[in-house]
Amino acid sequence: MRPFWTAALLSTCGAAILLIVRKKDRLTTVRRAAAKGDAAAQFNLGLMYEHGHGVPRDCVEAARWYRKAAAQGYASAQYNLGVMYDLGHGVRQDSVEAARWYRLAAEQGVTSAQFSLGLIYDHGQGVPPDATAAVRWYRQAAAQGNLSAQFNLGVMYDLGHGVPRDDAEAVRWFRQAAEQGETTAQCKLGCAYSQGAGVAQDDAAAIRWYRQAADRGNAPAQASLGFMYYSGHALSQDYAEAARWYRLAAAQGNAKAQFEFGSMYFLGEGVPQDFAEAARWFRQAADQGYAPAQSRLGLMYDDGLGLPQDDAAAALWYRQAADQGDADAQFNLGFMYIFGQGVPQDDAEAVRWYRRAAEQGDAKAQFNLGFMYTFGQGVPQDYAAAVRWYRTAAEQGYVSAQYNLGVMFDLGHGVRQDSVEAARWYRLAAERGETSAQFNLGYACYQGDGVPQDYDQAVHWYLQAAGQGYAPAQASLGLMYDDGHGVPQDYAEAVRWYRKAADQGDAGAQINLSGMYERGDGVPQDYVQAHLWINLAASRASGENKIAWAASRERLARKMTAQQIAEAQRLAREWKPRDQPAAAIGRDGQWIDSAVVPITGRGPARAFAVGA
């Protein structure tokens, strides 16, 4: 929003005349002269009534005497009468009448009137809006040194309002106002130097102008200095100094500074971490309609940070920010609709908000929208649309989207099946640490699917995923050691990796670990342990696997005593999986649990889950 000034009530010449009258204490003389039609005396008598100097303050009487002088063409009276109509002091407020008197004074060269006339043309008050006329009057006042007109003329050039946009011309007028001490112009000049807009980029000059304005209390300049200290841009990074400048601006009600200062409390940067204090500053900015603060306040209620946890309040603040176009709030509001937190559960409404955020380029919303299309959640299932949104997020480097896009190419969902393209996207995600992608890339290397067959590379990628606790990769790594593919054959190492996966409930690893115990490969032969692990796998299997594994369990049982079988069954009843992942969608847009295709028997399998 463009800042403008309101017209001053007293003209310079009027104030000087009034000072002389007061010193000589000649009210009677002034009144007598005014009664005889002396315009200057009428003007001064109007001033005295307006401000209560030597007479009781009476705006109606002031307006009456201004009118008498103005009717005689006394320019300062015409201007002050315009002000009275503009503000509704002593007369009924009337913008048309204000414009008429401003024009008469402006045409006589009264700079404040010229500025005020420019202002009313700019805003269309009492006259039709006319940016060109506004510029003309601002220019006349600016040429006489009126700093408010100089600043506003700079704004007109800055915005291309009533004149062609011209950064250099904007800077020229901002500089003239700034050199007269106008702090907002100083701040604008600092911004111009910082961005190299209309002048050569010069951080030192930017800092100098920002500091001049900030030292005189200009809140936007204080906030700009806070940012420069916070980011280390052109100044040595100093969180404490950033907090000092943000605090000064925030205390004046600058919403951006309130948000940034709250963020410093939120993160504990430059001030002690204090969520309650962060929430207090966020609320002040949010109450002014500052969308990022509304979004952050929603998050504070959502997570119960510094405020009581309150889903309804979170949704309310998210909505206020989302309605202003804040992408983070739109995403979070979509999330609230997915699970019915603070709002009725509504997948279609979730899609609507995800789409609004996604169309602004929010990668996590693009990913979640792709997911909704993949499974037909809140929208008709549409693999092609899913691919489009996954690709949009993936090209921004969003790891989960890169992985899911690889899956879509792998399965030929929404695109022509293409193992090479699948491997390319898996690799991009794998190199960023995405475990399912590491596992699938390892499998591609194992099979030579989309990449040259390379057991060493398969082991490399399995190790990457297994090291992060990913059970299918641990099971596959066990198989590589079991068979001596890409590593020297080592049954003990195979058992170690099988066990890691089996302990998490991976059925394929449990089957393979059972076999190791039954044969005594890498461990002492132990039918009880063998029965435990095949029993666990068979109990949760279905279809052909359940039949086959149950038959293997019965075959093994024929080798065991009743006591051994009872002990194995007891161990199976008491067994609990370790580090079992939660099945939920993450706040960051990732679905935490992937329903992977398990390793069955002794062969590896690829994770085809979407949403990892």
Mean pLDDT: 91
| Largest sheet properties | none
Helix content: 55-70%
Report the span from N to C terminus: 44 Å
Describe this protein's structure.
- It is built from 32 helices and no strands.
- The chain is mostly helical and 612 residues long.
- The chain has a domain at 406-574: Serine Threonine Protein Phosphatase 5, Tetratricopeptide repeat.
- 67% of the residues lie in helices and 0% in strands.
- The longest helix is centred in the last third of the chain and has 15 residues, at 543-557.
- It has helices at residues 12-24, 27-35, 39-51, 59-71, 75-87, 95-106, 111-123, 131-143, 147-159, 167-178, 183-195, 203-215, 219-231, 239-251, 255-267, 275-287, 291-303, 311-323, 327-339, 347-358, 363-375, 383-394, 399-411, 419-430, 435-447, 455-466, 471-483, 491-503, 507-519, 527-540, 543-557, 562-574.
- The chain is elongated, with a radius of gyration of 38 Å.
- The model is unreliable at 1-24 and 581-612 (pLDDT under 50).
